[in-house]
Design goal:
single chain, Glucose Permease (Domain IIA)
Length: 286
Amino acid sequence: MTNNNPRKKIFHHLLQRYRIVIIADNSLEERMSVRFSILKFFAVITSVLVIIVFVTLFVVTKSSLGQYIPGRSKDDVLQSLIGLNMKTDSLQASLNRRDAYLNNIESVLSGNDSFLISNNNLSLEATVTLENISFETSQEDSILRFVVENEERGSLDYIKKDDGNFVFFPPVVGYISDTFNFQKKHFAVDLVAKKNSKISSVLAGTVIVSDWSSEVGYFIGIQHKDNYISFYKHNSALLKKVGDYVSAGEQIAVIGNSGEFSTGPHLHFELWHNGSPVNPLDYIKF
């Protein structure tokens, strides 16, 4: 009786054996024969494909080839990217601080201090007009001239800072006529000394500016280590040029009365640290 069941026909067809025979062409001798069924053929092919897939995944995940797969990177690559991103942010912050620092220095050199204190914060008492200044010789002036003329030039009084162990030399031997006052935008100590007194560098450093302006006259600025900068304004003459290296206590200028902001012969001395003005009295014994 003929079996008409389709499933049995398909199963029978899959199990039906076939033979592949390889025969020599010249002698017709059978060299090799392979017997197989369709079911066994597909089983072998599937096993080979599964092995290839597993071997490929193993090689890709356990070797450096994994970094070439889109969306997948090794941990060290990710860490490198994170480190580069952090360095970029740090560099950007450093550049922003340096730009602010250079803008402050540029404003100092031009005599513009409005970037530190708004004019609205200044009281009317801080405004000084030329008409209110008296240039007549007083008894105090006479005593001052006598004291200054009898003091030795080049005094080596100094203060040693605990933080940096710096030896700050006084820029000139004289009398303090005005002190540091942040609220009044007077970021300096004014020193009155005898005529033609030589001004000295408070620390060793390199001259970064040596010029003249209508506001502060002849001025010179020196860059010191640890981001200290000193400025000496209203001079009558400059003894150093940009790029010169000066030692602590070395003469750099001559005291004078140059510039529109000067009200008499004196030295306008400023000390800056990290782009901000500091009180020279905290660093130097005048």
